[in-house]
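Researcher: Please generate the 3D structure of the following complex. Treat every line as part of one assembly.
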Amino acid sequence: MKIKTRLRYIFWLSNVVAVTVGFLLFYNAQSIAQEIGHLRIVGTIRQGIAEISALHNDYLETKDASILMRIRQRYEGIDLALTEALGAFRDGPTLADVRDISRMKNRNAALFDSLLKKSPQGGAPWDERIISDIRSNSYTNIAITHTMNDRLLKRLYILQQRMLVLIVVFTLTLLTGIWMAIHIIWSYFVKRILLIRQGSSIIAGGNFHFSWSDDADDEIGELSKDLSAMAIALSASYGKLEDKVEERTKELMKAKESLETKVHELEEANAKNRAILASMDDGVIATDKDGIIMLVNPKAQALLKWTPEDVVGKPVMSALDVRDATGAVLPENERPIPRALKKQAPIHANATYEFVRSDGIAFPVYVAASPIVFDGNVIGALEVFRDVTEEKEIERAKSEFISVAAHQLRTPAAAINWYLERLIHGRIGALTGKQMDYFREIERNNHRMIKLVNTLLNVSRLEVGALKIQPVPVDIAKLIQKTLAELRPMIEKKGIKVKTEFGKDSSGYFDPELLAIVTSNILSNAVNYTAPRGVVHVGATRVPVGARVGGTVLSEDSMLITVADTGYGIPEREQSRLFRKFFRANNARRKHTDGSGLGLYIVKSILDKTGGHIWFTSAEDKGTTFYITVPLLAHGNDGSLAISTPV
Amino acid sequence: MAEQRKKTVLIVEDEPSQLMVLRDELAYSGFEVLTAGSGEEGLSIALARRPDAILLDMMMPYMDGETMLLHLRKDKEWGRQVPVIVLTNMIPDDEKRMKNIRKSGVTQYLVKSSWPLEAIVDVIKRKVR
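Model: Done. Output below.
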C-alpha cells in the first residue's frame, strides 16, 4: 500500500488508542471527582449531625426555646443535605450508601416529627425517650457516616489504584507506540531506503549486476524497481557499448594499419624526393602562392649559406636579396617568383641576377622560376638557380679578351687606314691609275676587316650581356638618311632606286648606337642583295597597338621601319635559319661573298634586348621585305657609351 | 703684318708607326707638331711647351693616357683647360670606366679605326680655335 495510506493507518490507529486511553483516564478522573464530592457531602452531613448533637446538648442544658428554632433549621438542613446526597449517590454505583442515607433520612424525619410534636413552642422539656432517641439517632448517624466514609475512602482507594494502572498502561502504550512507530519507520522506510542507497552506490561504483527485489506496492518499492530496471538497462547498454567499442577498436586498428602503410609509402616517396632535391646541383627555393618559403634544398642552403630554420616560413621577398647585374636591388615586380606567379607560366631571367648570401656576399646566378600547379590551381612557385660565378668569370675573361683583342686588331688596322689615306690622297706622290686601284682594294679590304672586328666585338658584347642600352631622343628618319648616305657609293654604283617614306612623327626614345647598327645592317643588306637597277623602299612611321602589319598584330605602340627590296629574296627552305649566327643563304653567298653572316644575328639580338621585333616576307628572286618594330617606350638598363661617331 | 703663329699640337703615342703618320698629316695640315713616346714624356713636354692641343693615346706602358691626363689637369694655370683629344682603339665596355675617363677631363674621345686622318685634323682645328 502506498506510504501515505500506511501513514494514515498509523495515524488513525494511534488516534484511536490515545482517545481510548484518554477516555478511560478521563472517566476514572471523573469517578474520583465524584467520590470526592461524596466525601464532601458526607462531611457536610457529619458536620450537621455534630451541630445538631451540640444543639441538643445545648437545649438540654439551657432549655432555650430559640435553640429549638435552630434545631429545627438544622434538621431541615440535614434533610436537604441527605436529599441532595441521595440524589448524588444515586448517580453512583453505591447501593449501600443510598440505603444508609435513606435510613438516616427517614429516622431523622421521624425524630424530627416526634420532636416537633413533643415540643411546643413554650418549650416543654423533652422526655427521656426523646433524649435517648436523639442520642441513639446521633450515634447511629455518626456510625453511618463513619461507615459511609470508610466505604468512600475504599472506593477512592480503588479508583486511585485504577488510576495508577491506567497511567502505567498509558505509558506502556505510549512506549509501545513509539517503539512500533520507530520499528515501522525503520523497516518500512529507512531499511528499504538504505537498501536502495546501498544498491545505487554499488551501481554508481560500476557494478551493474547487483539487483534486489522490493515488491512493495508503494513509492519506495517503485523506486527500487526503477533503480533495478536502471541497473539492468545500464548493464545492458554497457554491454552493448563494450561490444561497440570492441568493434570500433578493431576497425580503428585496421584503419591505423592501412594508414601506417600509406604513411610508410609516403615517407619513402618523400625520402626519394628529398634525395632528388638533395642531389640536385642547382639551388631550389619553393614558395607557396603568397611567396612564403616552404622548402630550400641542400644546394640552395649551401649556396646562400642558409639554414632551413632561418628562412622557411618567411617571405622570399625579404629573406632573399636579389640584385641586377649593376648591383641595384631588383624591384619586386621583376623578381622571378612574382613574375612566374603572375604569368602562371615559367619565367627565365633574361639577364644575370645576383643573389646575396646570408653573409652579405653577392654572387651571379642564372634563375628560372615556374609556378607549381596542383589540380589545376597555382599553389606556389619554384625558383631554380645556379651559381654562375665561374661562367661569369669566364665570360668576363672572354669579354675582356675580346675587348683587348679587338683593340689589338684595330690598332694596326687603323694605322693601315691612315697610311692608305695619305697614299690615296696623293700626299706621298702622284699615283698611277693601277696603283690607285690596288691601294683602293687594300683600303676596301681593310675597311671590311675593321668592320668585321667591330661586328665580332658587338656580337661578343651582346652575348656576354655587356651591351648597354640608353635611350635618348632620336629622329629615325634622320638616322635612316644618314645610313643611306653612307651607302650612297654602292647605291649609285648599282643604280638602285631608293624611295623613302616617313610618317609625320619619326622620333622617339632609342639607343642611337644600337639603332644605328640595326638600320645599317638592314639597309646595307637591302642594297647588297638587290640586283642592279633594283628598288629599295624604306619607310618609318608610328603605328598603334593592334595594328596588323605584314601578317602580325602589334602588341604595343611602336615605331615601324620597313625595308622592302626587289632583290634575290631568301629561299623558303632557308628562311627559318635567317637570324642564326654566321648563317648565309646559299644564293646570297654566291652573289655577295663578303658577308659575315653576323649582321642579322646582331640585329635580332639587339631588338630582342630592347623589346623590338623583326620579321620578314620573302620570295626567291622576287624580293624581301623586312619589318622592324621598336617600342616607343624603350626601357633598358642605363649606362651609356657616349662615343662620338664621325659625322 | 705678323704671320699668325702656327698652332702647336702635341702627339702622345707610344707606337712609332702610328706616330709617324699622324705627325706627317698634322704637319701637312699646317700644325707645329711635338711628339712624346710615353705618358711621362708627354706630361713634361706638355707642361714645358704648352701646346694648343694634345692628341693622346690611352694604351701606353708605365704611365697610361688616363693617368697622364689626370696629372695634366691638376695644373691649374694651363693644364686644366688645354684641349685633349683622346685617340684610341679602346672602347671601354662598362659605364664606370667611361665615366671615369670622362671625369678625367677628356675633350673628345675618338676611336682610331673609325676616324680618317682628315676628320681628326678637322676636330683639332675646331678645338684649338
